[in-house]
Amino acid sequence: MSHSYRDLIVGQKAELLAGDIYRATDSFPPKEIYGLTSQMRRAPVSVASNIAEGQGRLTKGEFQQFLGHSRGSLLELEIQMEIASDLYYLNADEAVLLGTKTAEVRRLLNGLIDSLRAKSKAAGNESIHPKLET
User: Fold this and answer.
1) Any residues with CB less than 8 A from the CB of 108 and at least 6 apart, and which?
2) pTM of the complete model
3) What distance in Å separates the CA atoms of residue 70 and residue 42, rounded to the nearest whole number?
4) Fewer Cβ within 10 Å of end Cβ, the chain: N or C?
5) d(Cα 25, Cα 74) in Å, to the nearest integer?
6) CATH class of residue range 7-122
7) Over the chain (134 residues), what is each successive 10-residue block's mean pLDDT?
8) Do 80 and 36 contact (CB within 8 A), yes or no?
9) CA distances, 73 to each of 98, 106, 114 (Å)
10) DSSP string covering the chain
C-alpha cells in the first residue's frame, strides 16, 4: 500500500474536483457567498482532506473511517450540486461534467473502501505502516 496520499488516484481526482468546484462557483450570485457557494467549496476540500488525513493514520480501520467521512462529504456535494442546478446557478453542461467527475471520485472511493474492508477481514486490523509497528 502507498505511504502517501499523493500516490492515490482517488486523492488526486478529489483534489482536481475541488478546483473544478471552486471555478464553477465563481459565477454564483454574491448573495450565496456564505451559503451555497461556501458549502459547495468546503465539501470537496473535505473529501480530499479526509483522504490525506486517513492515509496518515496507523491502521486500515482508521483509514477506512476517514474514507467514510470523505464519502459523506462527496454525497453532500452531490445534493448541493443538484440544488445549484435547480436554482440555475450551474448550467446543464457544467452540471453534467461536474456530476461525471463526482461519480468517478465516488467510484474510486468506494473501490478503495471495499479493498480495505476485504484486506481487514482477511488479515485483521494491522498497521498500514508496518515500519511504525513496535
Assistant:
1) 9, 10, 13
2) 0.85
3) 12
4) C
5) 16
6) mainly alpha
7) 75 97 97 97 98 90 95 98 97 96 98 89 57 38
8) yes
9) 15, 10, 18
10) --SSGGG-HHHHHHHHHHHHHHHHHTTS-GGGTTTHHHHHHHHHHHHHHHHHHHHTSSBHHHHHHHHHHHHHHHHHHHHHHHHHHHTTSS-HHHHHHHHHHHHHHHHHHHHHHHHHHHHHHHH-S-BS-GGG--
> Which triple of cell numbers denotes residue 18?
475541488
**Cα gap 132→121, rounded to integer Å:** 21
**Cβ-based neighbours of 37, under 8 Å, separated by 6 or more:** 25, 28
Count CB-CB contacts under 10 A for residue 5: 21
